[in-house]
Structures are given as C-alpha cells and as structure tokens.
Amino acid sequence: MSTTTAERIPRTLRGAVLLAVAVFVAGCNGGTVDRHALAKDGEAVDSLACEGVLLADDVAAGDTTGIFTRVHAGDLARRASNFEDALGERPTLEEIEPQVRALGRRAGRISTLLEELHDRPTDRSAARRLVSELSGEGDCR
Asked: So what's the pLDDT on residue 2?
C-alpha cells in the first residue's frame, strides 16, 4: 500500500522534529564546562530565580491562580534541579570547578524554594518570604 503526499509530510515533519530535539538535548548540559558555559549557565540560573520572584510576587499580591502557580513553579523548579544535577557532575575546567559546583548548589537552593511555591501556590505569606529569598539567590535587576 503506497502512502500519499499528505501522509508522508507529517511523517517527514515528525522525523525532522525528533531529530532536532535529539540534537538539542544532546547539546544541553553536556560537554566540559568552560568559562563561557559557566557564564551562560549562571545567567540561566539567575533567570529561573527571577522568574520565581515575579511569580511569588504575583501570588503575594493575589494576582494569579493557584493552578497557574503550581504548574509554573513546578516547571521552574524542575529546570533549576536539572542545572543542579548537571553542574554537580559535568566535567569542568579545573580552574573554575569551585565556581561551577557553587552554581550547582545555588541552583539546588532555587529549586527548593520554587518547590515550596509549587507546594503552597496560594499562601500569600509564604510567597512574600519567597520573593525575598529568591531575590537573594538570583541577580534580578
């Protein structure tokens, strides 16, 4: 049984998308951490903390829903946790290894704070505290 053009296009597109995702995933959090990678990872970790600040601030002000907060905080926490794992294990240039491992620990602290926001998505008092704590972990200008 032959396939029509309409059937081949989705299959081809699906294959291209899967290939692109595989290449992207293989390049993420892999390889030796050099100064450039450390700077980029630091920016990404800061960004996660700052997104958490904005989200916690909305919770504290009553400007968001619990469902949105739970989902978004959970996603941010997972991403921060991925950085914690990767930065704790990846091969690193010897001269920057202490900074890389410290960034991994900071990503872990951010993940823990975001998990708390995930677990308490409508607690305005906790959100006010988390604004302060996340601000201290990220370079949020």
From this structure: 52
Cβ-contact 126, 120 below 8 angstroms: yes
pLDDT tens-digit series, residues 86-132: 999 999 999 999 999 999 999 999 999 999 999 999 999 999 999 99
DSSP at 3: P
Per-residue H/E/C for 62-111:
CCCCHHHHHHHHHHHHHHHHHHHHHHHHCCECHHHHHHHHHHHHHHHHHH
pTM: 0.78
Q: Is the dihedral of CA 12, 18, 22, 25 positive or negative?
A: positive
- CA dist list (Å): 52 to 4, 35, 89, 137: 48, 26, 25, 10
- What is the Cα–Cα distance from 107 to 131, expressed in whole angstroms? 16
Determine the residue type at 11: R
pLDDT at 59: 98
